[in-house]
Amino acid sequence: MARPRIKDVARHAGVSEKTVSNVLNDYVHVSDRTRRVVQEAIDHLGYRINLAGRHLRSGRTGIIALVVPELDVPYFAELARHVVREAERRSLTVLIHQSGADREKEKAALAGFGSDFVDGVILSPLALAPEDLHAHSGPPPTVLLGELLTDGADHVAIDNELAAREATEHLLALGRRRILTVGGRDDGCVGTAQARTRGYRAALAGAGIAYDPALLLPVEAFHMSDGAAAVRRVLDEGVRPDALLCLNDQLALGALRALRGYGARVPEDVAVVGFDDVEGGRFSAPSLSTVAPDKEAIARVAVDLLLRRIDEATRPEPRPDDLGRPGSVSPQDRVVAHRLVLRESTEGAGGRDGEW
């Protein structure tokens, strides 16, 4: 049996082929009734979009790349799921690549892995230097995630500084004053840890509390084992914080384990806040208060921005009088919403007299 074509769907639905195309491309100016009739015809005939033909005609492969540092970090795994879902809605395939925070691998991603295999790249860089980004001017189009900003590419992130300030202010409102920042960095570089540390310091300053560098605890990596080891180390040194601001949930989950080993009660003795709102934090004991970035919105905005750039890259060259058309705009810096989710690791944390 021959594969059904658009004209077969149009004949079955009693509409034009253009109308069927509008429905397939999710064109907004189609009535609900027409959309329903066309969809019923599509389902009845078993019509499937010929993606190969569509991509061949458009000069695209229909494949985008998502490049993240580590797939076994739950935040990136959850973000990848949202990116794949958004891409599927637009009939795109996502190639997921793990960079390992290696500069050469991230530079290779910027260059499209040395081929025309992908139409565009969504990249969460950790090792790239500003000069790497400034040197990137050709294909493929790229959207950056996180804190590494450049004026040459679109960028999507939450306001990490504000988020950390709000989380610290929550701990301060609980009466906590010795707040240890696990994963914090105050080295003047550009990065997520540095932005969140600035937010922590801003909250302390706003409360009139002097910043104590001894309460800043850098880590080599952002895994549970790193959080546990770092907290054990400072506790062995005799430091007794009354709160932890952990710069991701993995560090916070490791810290919870370490605190338990030292007999500290959470939240009575030590209140704990993480970042990312990963699934594990909802099921830990106690459950983890955390800053929740809108991962679904990050994925949606990133895919939208990338598709706009891909459209610009593959459309015919503009005429001289067409240079001001919509879409030919400078790179966009989009800030996505976040919220502070309060759970057992801070809720009811009134503190107590004495030492633990």
Largest β-sheet summary: 6 strands, parallel
Uncertain residue segments: 319-327, 351-355
Order of helices and strands: HHHHEHEHEHEEHEHEHEHEHEHEE
Mean pLDDT: 87
Physical arrangement of strands within the biggest beta sheet: 2-1-3-4-5-11
Distance between the termini: 76 Å
SS-derived structural category = alpha/beta
Give the fraction of residues assigned to helices: 40-55%
Question: What percentage of the residues does DSSP assign to strands (E)?
Answer: 5-15%
Name the shape in a single word.
elongated
Taking all Cα atoms into account, the compactness measure Rg is: 25 Å
Number of helical segments with 4 or more residues: 13
Number of strands: 12
In short:
This protein is of the alpha/beta class.
Describe the structure.
The chain is α/β, with parallel strands linked by helices and about 350 residues long. It is about 40% helix and about 15% strand. It contains 13 helices and 12 strands. The strands form 2 sheets. It has a 6-stranded parallel β-sheet, sandwiched between helices. A 6-stranded mixed β-sheet has the order 7-6-8-9-10-12, sandwiched between helices. Helix 5 (about 75-90) links the parallel strand 1 (about 65-70) and strand 2 (about 95-100). Helix 8 (about 160-175) packs across helix 9. The longest helix is centred in the C-terminal third of the chain and has 20 residues, at about 295-315. The protein is elongated, with a radius of gyration of 25 Å.
